[in-house]
Amino acid sequence: MARRRRHPEPASTELNLTSMIDVVFQLLIYFIVGTSFAMGEQSYRMDLPEREGASTIDPLELDEEPVTVEVLGGGRITIPGPWTSPVSVEHLTTFLAARLSDGLITSETPIRIRPRAAVPWGDAVQAFNAALAGGFETVGFEEPAP
Amino acid sequence: MSVAERLGVGRPVKTGANLTPMIDMTFLLVVFFILVSRITSVEQIPLQLPSPFDPASNPAPEAPRLVVNIPGDDEGLATGVVYDQQEYDLDDDGLDLLTGAVAARLETMPELQVNLRADRRVPYESVAPVMDALAAAGARAGRTDGLRVNLVIQVDPDAGGID
B16 to chain A: which residues are within 8 Å by CB? Predict the structure, then answer.
């Protein structure tokens, strides 16, 4: 004991920051990766079948008549069929909900969005979104109307 | 020279922070940022995505995906299709090349999806052929029940409901 007192070990004056910096950078990377990738972007799932070429589906076997939503641009739409068509895309969801309760269509009825050629993509997506919001499972895009 | 002299016993203790690990981590961070900015600039080219009211969309899936962009010019017209740092024309030849390139990638991974990012001002007649090209790529890659395509939109948290 006497010998240890005579030669005390020098006190370490260095603070070891390595592990702290290590962890801080790890956290930083984690948050950057977790937040800044494609901020605010969401997407709609859509299955794209091959439209051209021979189809093995017999149209006579299709039990559901598709509903075609023609997008005219500027928020205007028209839906050909035995009903009073809504004129604005804002009323598409309520219109489809009303036809569901009428029993004219079911939630499995295919909805085809058919924008005119010059209609901006944003308007087409608006109609697509309205049909999805109505709870329909099969919503797709068609060839552009002239 | 004795062992004690060689080891520096008796010299003053060196004080000073050891910077090596910090520099290590800083370089790691720099490399990370360079990589991330390159990846995001390749895939997420800036364009005005559609932002419908009351979106019924889902958060972007975590599944591996390709990103196909249709940017618009100042007047909102589509100039071409950007996929994997390459710009393809919107004519038949360009879309054929796009179909081939996408089909080749789809064949390598069966669960690969496609994210379609189109400018909201682009007319539909420019988007529809691209969707046809993607569908053709899916068919060429053997996706018999259709190719999973995610239509990317911008969700604005400040946007109000539909009515």
Answer: 14
Residue range B65-151, CATH number: 3.30.420.270
How far apart CA A136 and CA A139 sit, in angstroms, is 7
Q: What is the pLDDT of residues B81-104, one digit of tens each?
A: 988 888 999 999 999 999 999 999
**Domain ranges (residues) in chain B:** 65-151
The residue of chain A with its CA nearest to that of B52 is: A126
Instruction: List chain B residues with CB under 8 Å of A117.
Output: 123-125
Amino acid at position A82, single letter: P
**Fold entry, domain A64-141:** Nucleotidyltransferase; domain 5 (3.30.420)
**pLDDT tens by residue, B1-16:** 566 666 666 777 777 7
Interface of B with A in 130-159 (CB under 8 A): 131-132, 134-136, 138-139, 145-157
Outline where chain B has alpha helix (H): 3-7, 20-43, 92-108, 124-140
Dist. CA B153–CA B51, nearest whole Å:
6
What ipTM goes with this model? 0.72
Provide the CB-side half-sphere exposure for A37 (13 A, CA): 16
Residue contact A47–B146, C-beta within 8 A: yes
